[in-house]
Design a protein that fits this description.
The chain contains 34 helices and 30 strands. The chain is of the alpha+beta class. Strands 1, 2, 3, 4, 20, 21, 28, 29 and 30 form a nine-stranded antiparallel beta sheet that branches. It is elongated. 47% of the residues are buried. Belongs to the resistance-nodulation-cell division (RND) (TC 2.A.6) family.
Length: 1041
């Protein structure tokens, strides 16, 4: 094939331009994201059971739903959370499962159980939908003039902003954490009793007098033929003001007087509900979270949202401002740009290395042309496969840059040597060079592509990561090998100059100095290599020592899944004791806001009261602290350090717990970058036994030096008032149970009666007992309910109450009662070490209790189980390819024996830097397997040819090492410098870049420095053993004859 393109260089250019054009045309079509779709598909099942306690919901709804989930195709696990008034079950499927089909399967299964559910649940219906991502961003509306009316902000956002954002492509859900306006009727139960009225009377009066009356028209056909006009008849039935609602007549007396709503209630244009409040930098705000629609691209959606917000900002009142205090897409955008900068830096560094060694711009430009063509070809293949531009594909391209030039450098260096030493013409030199090295190029290309093949077939979420990296790198390498056999020889034959004895090319002073020093280094290596070959036994003993060191250091590497990135913000979960009021929670949140705003790394602080990772409630809050840009923060201001100092500062809080975390590296896999687990009651020993096991787990974790924090994710058991109704006595008094339920619901909770028009928007009309009558259980029992005769009966006539402590929510994991926990490893320890410590603690728990991992921790456990298989398959693939190329089982072993040396370099590098054995390290380790074999192939290929020409094994090995020393050092140095920007990265995404770059640089250094010494030894020793075995076999055959 090379001869064809040497004779037809234009043909090579046409193919090259086709590849480049395909990449250019498809580059703009690729989506951009941080990672591919790593999170496994999840389906959520929601059920509403108004008025039911968490225990009743768990027994009568959740357990029935869970019965039907076992056996679903592709199911990994399911977990549920039952709370007062409803339940939610999340079903997690294996990566690669079609979420649409999974949703259909779940819906079909649930059809079997619908008839067994309580009637109230059936009326509400079961909602089955694909799980949504974590928050993409939160936008906020706030005042510029210091106003404190958060309801006005929420009302404006609901009217003019939120629906606009919901219409943006890719937006799945917009949730507001402040309430818009509503007409609130605050009823005084004592006044009702005085007028002999009930809450039901108030509700009926509003429903009957606040109605839209479609009266029709005058003069419409059919009618008299001489009808001259038509007119719409308007009846003012729907009320619009506080005064109008206050004047609603509850009862008209015979004396002409009347009882109106303002006689028994206070009417105001207030809030729809009081569940949530939000503040931005300590000031009132309306906060709205945005979640992605399934399958939507985060960066594109976030950019579209921010563009629409900018457009809406021009229409805001003068005293309002829109901002985005929490935006996950910004980190992704900056991190991707950082990797692209690294890509450019790598190309420049590789070009400089080639120029340093080749010392001729023509020679240097030939490999330089190959790199962008290979990358563009890879982009075209990625587009065809539906891949995105993400961290893994970009990392694959960064590593590829140092590899892509290898094949071209080998060709150019060999052609240049033949022109200079044998004075051949460029075309003749290229032909001879390609005959010498075509086999090596094919071998290197196939080996490097084959080593990544097992990565593409790994399962689980980590398999998705491996696949994107493997395909990007393998495709680049295949393009490189193809161009090394087509374009590179065509360019060498046409671009390079022939040797001119009259005007020989002389290197400049700097190049001469470099050549002298490099030649001296090469001679020292040649002498040292010859010595190692002569002392083969000692060399093999040293090799065995290195193997032992490799095994020892690798076994001691702490494990992890993905490095915790500084994403530019931290999240703080705030939890007060059970039954704490919203006012108490607000005091703690204000203390947190003052602390966070005073930190030098803080940019903005968003606080949401009433909502947290643990659930909704008056005693819960969540805060997002956005940090300043990475370039504006000094040392000690990384997000994990900020979070750790915050945890230390609020470790002893008099009224609650605050736990700050760094967000998870992958959206959809948990809520923090630490570990997640479930404590299961497999034996069904009951709630109290589960709580005792929880306390034992928390105490042991607190005493462990490996675990920094372990926190229960859930609402603790809280005081509850159990109202016991004597149904016989109630029936004797003529009071039905549904009337009692309705009275309690509207008085203590709230009841939406209907709606009213307010500035062009329909808003709710809600009745509820006023605050003073909802403060004590005694006030509760003074409520009056109507009997069948219309007389009012006090609740305490047939009811009594008692205090008790009960669960606000009941969690189950795979059908067993469970508790959710999250935490982080102590400084200096990895999540893998913390997980092992928790496994050890779990063995001390009472029988019947166990720990199960979830989120990132589950993926980390699965990833660590795949490592031996991954390395074994990669080595096997390399072995088989080499056996097929060389038609020998001996030569491939001479190549593969160098692989552990490169692996040792990787392990030592990450050990020295204190890094764990995570996904990036594993990817780097597989890369080093291929690169170590590549250098060995360059030596072995030449040694094999020299031995075939008559040289002894030792002479062939030494001479091959000498001839290949310069290209090996050049290609290895080009690769190492190309990866250096990864190893020393800073800013957004730096943790991932360093995790990959450190191990690869260490492994390549070891494979280069020690490889040129060990490979000749392995070649001589393995071939000697193979020859002896061959001779013995031959002798045995002759004796048998």
């Amino acid at each position: 094939m090379p001869d064809f393109f040497i004779n037809r260089p234009n043909f090579a250019w046409v193919i090259t331009l086709f590849i480049a054009l395909a990449g250019v045309l498809t580059l703009g079509t690729l989506a951009v994201s941080q990672y591919p779709d790593v999170a496994p598909p999840q389906i959520n099942v929601s059920a509403n059971y108004p008025g039911a306690s968490a225990l009743i919901v768990s027994q009568n709804v959740t357990s029935l739903i869970e019965e039907e989930l076992n056996g679903l195709k592709g199911l990994i696990y399911y977990e549920s959370n039952s709370a007062n008034g409803g339940a939610e079950t999340t079903i997690t499927f294996k990566p690669g499962t079609d979420p649409d089909m999974a949703q259909v399967d779940v819906q079909n299964r649930l059809q079997r159980v619908v008839g067994r559910l309580p009637q109230a649940v059936i009326e509400q219906g079961l909602e089955v939908e694909q799980a949504r991502s974590n928050f993409l961003l939160v936008y906020a509306l706030s005042y510029t003039d210091g106003q404190q009316d958060s309801v006005g902000l929420a009302d404006y956002a609901a009217r003019a902003i939120n629906n606009e954002i919901r219409r943006v492509a890719g937006v799945g859900r917009v949730q507001m954490y402040t309430a818009e306006r509503a007409m609130r009727i605050w009823v005084d139960p004592a006044r009702l009793v005085g007028y002999n009225l009930s809450m039901a009377d108030v509700g009926r009066a509003i429903a009957g007098q606040n109605i839209q009356v479609p009266a029709g028209s005058l003069g419409e056909r059919p009618g008299p033929a001489d009808q001259q006009i038509t007119a719409t008849v308007m009846v003012q039935g729907q009320l619009e003001s506080v005064e109008a609602f206050g004047n609603i007549v509850l009862r008209a007396n015979d004396d002409g007087s009347s009882v109106r709503i303002h006689d028994v209630a206070r009417v105001e244009l207030g809030r729809k509900d009081y569940r949530f409040d939000a503040r931005l930098n300590g000031k009132p705000a309306a906060a709205m979270s945005v979640q992605l629609a399934p399958g939507a691209n985060a960066l594109q959606t976030a950019e579209a949202i921010k563009t629409r917000l900018a457009q809406l900002s021009s229409t805001l009142p003068a005293n309002m401002v829109l901002s985005v205090p929490y935006d996950t897409s910004y980190f992704v955008e900056v991190a991707i740009k950082q990797v692209i900068y690294t890509l450019v830096e790598a190309m420049v560094l590789v070009f400089l290395v080639m120029l340093l060694f080749l010392q001729n711009l023509r020679y240097t430009l030939i490999p330089a042309v190959v790199v962008p063509v290979c990358l563009l070809g890879t982009v075209a293949v990625m587009a065809a496969l539906g891949f995105s531009i993400n961290m893994m594909t970009l990392f694959g391209m960064v590593l590829a840059i140092g590899i892509l030039v290898d094949d071209a450098i080998v060709v150019v260096e060999n052609v240049e040597r033949l022109i200079a030493q044998e004075h051949l013409s460029p075309k003749a030199a290229t032909r001879k060079a390609m005959r010498q090295i075509s086999g090596a190029i094919v071998g290197i290309t196939l080996v490097l592509a084959a080593v990544f093949l097992p990565l593409a077939f790994m399962g689980g979420s980590v398999g998705v990561i491996y696949q994107q990296f493997a395909v990007a790198l393998s495709v680049s390498i295949l393009f490189s090998g193809f161009l090394a056999l087509t374009l590179t020889p065509a360019l060498c034959a046409t671009v390079l100059k022939p040797f001119d004895p009259a005007h020989p090319t002389r290197p400049n002073r700097w190049a001469s100095a470099f050549n002298r020093r490099f030649e001296a280094l090469a001679q020292r290596y040649e002498r040292l290599g010859a010595s190692w070959v002569r002392r083969g036994s000692r060399s093999l003993c040293l090799y065995l020592v290195l193997l032992l060191v490799l095994g020892f250091t690798y076994a001691r590497l702490p494990s992890s899944f993905l490095p915790a990135e500084d994403q530019g913000y931290i999240v703080t979960d705030i939890q007060l004791p059970p039954a704490a009021s919203a006012a108490r929670t607000d005091v703690t949140v204000q203390a947190w806001e003052r602390y966070a705003l005073a930190q030098p790394a803080t940019d903005q602080v968003l606080a949401i009261m009433g909502f947290s990772f643990s659930g909704e409630g008056a005693n819960a809050a969540l805060s997002y602290v956005t940090l300043k840009d990475w370039s504006l923060r000094g040392s000690g201001q990384a997000s994990d350090e900020v979070a750790r100092r915050a945890n230390d500062a609020f470790e002893e809080v008099a009224d609650g717990t605050l736990f700050s975390v760094v967000p998870p590296p992958v959206d959809g896999l948990g809520t923090s970058s630490g570990f997640e687990l479930r404590l299961q009651d497999l034996a069904g020993q009951g709630h109290e036994a589960l709580l005792k096991a929880r306390n034992q787990l928390l105490e042991a974790a607190k005493a462990s030096p490996v675990i920094d924090h372990l926190m229960e994710d859930g609402l603790a058991d809280a005081p509850q008032i159990n109202v016991s109704i004597d149904r016989e006595k109630a029936e004797a008094l003529g009071v039905s149970f549904d009337v009692i339920s309705a009275a309690l619901s509207s008085a203590l909770g709230s009841e939406q009666i209907n709606e009213f028009a307010n500035q062009g928007r329909m808003q709710r009309v809600i009745i509820q007992a006023d605050g003073m009558s909802r403060q004590t259980p005694q006030a509760l029992l003074r409520l009056q309910v109507p009997n069948r005769q219309g007389r009012l009966v006090p609740l305490d006539a047939f009811s009594r109450f008692e205090w008790q402590v009960g669960p606000l929510q009941i969690a189950r994991y795979n059908g067993s009662a469970s508790l959710r926990f999250s935490g982080d490893a102590a400084p200096g320890y990895s999540t893998g070490q913390a997980m092992q410590a928790l496994q050890d603690i779990a063995r001390q728990l009472p029988a019947g209790f166990s720990l199960e991992w979830a989120g990132l921790s589950l993926q980390e456990q699965q990833a660590s189980d795949q490592v031996p298989l991954l390395v074994g398959l990669s080595l096997t693939m390399v072995l088989l390819v080499l056996v097929a190329l060389y038609e020998s089982w001996a030569i491939p072993f001479a190549v593969l024996l160098i692989v552990p040396v490169g692996m040792l370099g990787s392990v030592l590098a990450v050990t020295v830097m204190g890094m764990p054995n995570d996904v990036y390290f594993k990817v780097g380790l597989i890369t080093i397997i291929g690169l170590s074999a590549k250098n060995a192939i360059l030596i072995v290929e030449f040694a094999k040819a020299l031995h075939a020409e008559g040289a002894s094994l030792a002479q062939a090995a030494a001479q091959a090492a000498r001839l290949r020393f310069r290209p090996i050092v050049m290609t290895s140095l080009a690769f190492i410098l190309g990866v250096m920007p990864l190893a020393f990265a800073s800013g957004a995404g730096a943790a991932s870049q360093r995790a990959l770059g450190t191990g690869v640089v260490g492994g390549m250094l070891a494979a280069t420095v020690l490889g040129v010494l060990f490979v000749p030894v392995f070649y001589v020793q393995v071939l000697s053993v193979a020859n002896r075995l061959r001779r013995r076999r031959g002798a045995s055959i002759e004796e048998g004859a």
